[in-house]
Each structure stands twice: as structure tokens, then as C-alpha cells.
Design brief:
This protein is of the alpha/beta class. Helix 4 packs parallel to helix 6. Helices cover 42% and strands 18% of the residues. The N and C termini lie far apart (48 Å). The chain has one domain: NAD(P)-binding Rossmann-like Domain (Rossmann fold), CATH 3.40.50.720. The longest helix has 25 residues. It has twelve helices and 14 strands.
Length: 366
């Protein structure tokens, strides 16, 4: 029996990993206690996604476990032991703004829980592959010091700069910048994952994501850029753009493409590796450009306003250079471009809305 442990299994990346691995014959053990609803409110709950996984993935076992709970996490690793071949650690507190409200909670979930999972892996299944969903926020606001040029709908890096062709690579320093407390807690986790690989010889990797997205995202104002933007466009919910004239640029990768990266790494793992991952030059947009695409796909106008103050440590321009990963795993490629991704988000939101209406009618409620 080959077992995969997936933390944050009800979330965007976690649920994608559950489905992907179940399709490949794994018994998947998921950990998720729906902390997302505590972070961002009931509208961001992943309960709907967990219910769907239980219904559709027969090899999935759900554990309502807090990843900070040493006894519960240890019990899971003891139960499956050396049958565990892969750990996908996708659980996180993911918001800059929220981390400043409860720094201890943020650090406990992002950093201390990562240490706990690494140690349980070392004790019970040291040959397993450990994949960590890190973030480009480990670089703090250092990208904002790049030479940027203002264009009509976006900021862009100066064409003479080495990053212009393919984006930002892993050589950028994570030091001497403002990270936000969220970024700092993810830095701690990122370094721990690297260290367990290099010090203990474990098969570990940090995937430093830009904007990760897809139809399983429970988007909310503080987290889930494209999913929340599409939701607001579809439902008429007011949307606020913060700073940089709405021209700040993000690269966007569909969760399926990201998990396929994980799969390639699992098949030929390395020790203490680091990869920048995102849509790269293949799939990126400014906020203004994303608004136009959402309006085009939905046929509706977004009700949006602008506030001059940008969020702390927010990037003005970020495009990931995925060249290092491509060099190590040349058989991997994207399956979704930006428009494809937005269409899957749109269809996912429509299906969930339809399911919600069906349940309401079935319950006899007005």
C-alpha cells in the first residue's frame, strides 16, 4: 500500500493533490480542520470541498486535525509508517493582513506545524518525499526594487534587465526586505524544509508559488486573487483594488499544473531543493487586465473602486522564472493558459452556485 499525506486537503492545492494522487493509485490521508473559515469567514469555508472529496474519491481518508496538534499528527504518521511515500504540505495561514492580527497563530500554523511534519516524516517515514507549498513572499518586497516601467495597463520590468525574458529566478535574495509577518513565517518554514533535506539527507522541496488558483479555490478578499475577482464579477459583489493604479502584475498557475510539478518531483526527487513556480511569461496579468478578462468571460461588469494605499509588502511586479524546474524536469509543461484557468474558475463557481440552489430547494426553504 502506498500512502500520501496531504495537509490542507480541503483547500485549493490540497484538494487538487488529493484527486491527482488518488487517480494514480495512492491511498490519500488528508488533514484539514477548516481553519480557512476562521481566517476569512464562512464564505471561505472549505467544507463543501471536503464533502466532495469524500464522495468522489474512494481512496481518501479525511482527518479533522489541526496541523499544530503534535499528538494527532504523530498518531497519523505512526498508523501508516513506512507506507507513507509522499507528504504534500499545503496547509497554511495565507494572508499578509491576517498574520498581523494574530502573529502567534500565523507562526504556529506556517512555521511550527511545518517543523512538526518534517520531524514526523524523519521519525516514521524518512524515505518519503516531502513537498512544501511555499510562496514568493519569502522574497519580501525586494522585487519592488527592480527597474519597472509603467505601461497603459500594467507595470513591466525594464526590457534591458535579465529578468525581462523569463521572470524572477531563485537567485533573488530573501534578506533585507519587508516580508509581512506571513512572509516571515513562511521563510522560517521554507528554510526548515531545505535544512531537513540538506542536514538529514531527506527528499524535500520548496515550491515558491506566485498566484496559485483554480476552480477549487474558496476565494475571499484577503486571499485568492483570481477566484475572488471572478466571484465578485459573477455575483455583483463590490471589489476594491489597492494601490499601484491597479497595474500590479501577477503570474498565475492552475492548481492542476502545480500538482503535476509535485508529481514530477516525486518521481525523481532531490534533497533540499527550491523552485520558483507560477504562470511565468506563459500566464500573467495585471489587476486591470484580469478585470477585463473576467468581464469578458462572464458578460458582466465588475463593480469596483480604487484605494491608493497598497497592502504592506505587496509586489508591484512578479513573474516567476520556472526555468530551473524545467531544466530538472523537462517533460513537465503547462496545460492551462490564463484564459483557460479563468474559464475553469467561472464554471466552478457556476456549478457551486447551482448546487447551492438545488440544496435550498430540496430543504423546502424559500
Amino acid at each position: 500500500m502506498k500512502v500520501a499525506v496531504v495537509t490542507g486537503s480541503g483547500g485549493l492545492v490540497g484538494s487538487e493533490a488529493v484527486r491527482f494522487l488518488a487517480e494514480r493509485g495512492f491511498r490519500v490521508v488528508g488533514m484539514d480542520n477548516d481553519m480557512r473559515s476562521r481566517f476569512f469567514g464562512e464564505e471561505a469555508s472549505v467544507a463543501w470541498n471536503v464533502a466532495r472529496l469524500k464522495e468522489e474519491c474512494g481512496s481518501y481518508t479525511h482527518c479533522q486535525v489541526d496541523v499544530r496538534d503534535t499528538d494527532s499528527v504523530d498518531a497519523i504518521f505512526r498508523t501508516y509508517g513506512s507506507d507513507i511515500r509522499l507528504i504534500v504540505h499545503a496547509a497554511a495561514q495565507p494572508s499578509h493582513d491576517w498574520s498581523a492580527r494574530e502573529p502567534l497563530t500565523d507562526f504556529g500554523i506556517n512555521a511550527q506545524a511545518t517543523l512538526l511534519l518534517l520531524e514526523m516524516t524523519r521519525r516514521h517515514c524518512p524515505e518519503a518525499v516531502f513537498i512544501f507549498t511555499s510562496t514568493n513572499k519569502v522574497y519580501g518586497d525586494a522585487p519592488n526594487r527592480l527597474p519597472l516601467v509603467e505601461l497603459e495597463t500594467r507595470w513591466e520590468i525594464d526590457p534591458s534587465h535579465p529578468y525581462h525574458a523569463n521572470g524572477i529566478d531563485e537567485s533573488m535574495s530573501i534578506d533585507q526586505s519587508k516580508h509581512s509577518l506571513f512572509g516571515a513565517s513562511k521563510v522560517a518554514a521554507d528554510i526548515l524544509v531545505q535544512e531537513y533535506g540538506r542536514y538529514f539527507g531527506m527528499k524535500t522541496a520548496c515550491f515558491r508559488g506566485g498566484c496559485l488558483t483554480g476552480p477549487a479555490h474558496s476565494g475571499t478578499e484577503l486571499h485568492g486573487f483570481l477566484a475572488y475577482l471572478m466571484q465578485c464579477t459573477l455575483t455583483g459583489t463590490p471589489y476594491t483594488v489597492y494601490g499601484y493604479k491597479g497595474k500590479q502584475v501577477r503570474d498565475n498557475i492552475h492548481s492542476r499544473d502545480l500538482v503535476n510539478m509535485f508529481w514530477h518531483f516525486y518521481q525523481n526527487p532531490r534533497q533540499g531543493e527550491v523552485y520558483n513556480v507560477g504562470g511565468g511569461r506563459h500566464a500573467n496579468c495585471s489587476v486591470l487586465e484580469a478585470i477585463s478578462l473576467c468581464e469578458e468571460i462572464t458578460g458582466k461588469k465588475l463593480n469596483w473602486t480604487y484605494k491608493e494605499n497598497h497592502r504592506q509588502a505587496d509586489h508591484i511586479w512578479w513573474i516567476s522564472d520556472v526555468g530551473k524546474f524545467r531544466t530538472h524536469f523537462p517533460d513537465w509543461d503547462y496545460s492551462f493558459d490564463l484564459r483557460d484557468t479563468l474559464k475553469t474558475i467561472y464554471e466552478g463557481l457556476r456549478q457551486r452556485a447551482g448546487a447551492g440552489r438545488s440544496q435550498t430547494r430540496g430543504s423546502g426553504r424559500a
